[in-house]
Amino acid sequence: MDDIFAPDRAVIIAGPCAVEDRDQVMEVARVVSGAGVKILRGGAYKPRTSPYTFQGLEEEGLKLLADAAEKYGLKIATEITDTENAEIVLRYVDIVQIGTRNMANFALLKKVGKLTSSDHRPVILKRGFSSTIEEWLLASEYITGAGNPNVILCERGIRTFETATRFTLDLSAVPVVKKLSSHPIIVDASHSTGNRDMVIPMSRAAIAAGADGIMVEVHPNPPKALCDGAQSLTPGQFLRLVEEVRPIAAAVGRSLG
Ligand code: PEP
Ligand code: MN
Predict the structure, then answer these.
(1) For ligand 1, is residue 100 a contact (CB within 6 Å)?
(2) Is the CB of 191 under 6 A from ligand 1?
(3) pTM for this model (two decimals)
(4) Which of 29, 62, 184, 248 could bond to 212 as cystine, CB 3.0-4.6 Å?
(5) How far is CA 65 from the centre of its chain?
(6) Can you tell me which atom of ligand 1 is nearest the CA of 100?
(7) What's the pLDDT tens digit per position in 170-193?
């Protein structure tokens, strides 16, 4: 994992919420790689709150992600939602994601830890939106305990009484985790805010607070997105984010990677 995270690097993971079709994923891959980003995210199996919304292209989505990643020389991060799709997702991805709704799915954590125990593929563990930092760190030990030490913790917002944002981004988790854990910590400014206009300021703040990276959603045409359009950056906004985060990263001794 040292080839991804380092104390002098701020990593950007960017891509659509969900893989929708070939043109969409190719266009996002072109934009993010053009900005110097190395890791493309995109969901193929989506853990949607409503069973009536788009659930993802499943293996077809993984193939599209792999094609885009190959064309643009990117690594792929995508979510495993279930013990049943773990093996199939692992055939395609470089970095695994476990979402907020599955942080406490200990059978899944153990299974992913075991399946990646030989190759130590990085696993992004998002914080449960109702979980304490202690519960989150303990959850990470199901993965490490199953044989994979390469966990990346991702703060993605927690549920509070506030309704102006989708969740409340707990940026103080960054220094707390830095103190208690040696895993890298990244911040998801998209799911936490739920609003594309807040993604750039909170991404800047995350890097200023000492995060090892950020994760953001980008879509070629957010109003048409099948999932999370309101929080998805346009390509133009994404390029602006990179330019605005770069000097903040430099100020805290990190280069964008
Ligand atoms: C995602 O990253 O697409 C996602 C569903 O995130 P979360 O688990 O944080 O809601
Ligand atoms: Mn999303």
Answers:
(1) yes
(2) yes
(3) 0.98
(4) 184
(5) 15
(6) 8
(7) 999 999 999 999 999 999 999 999
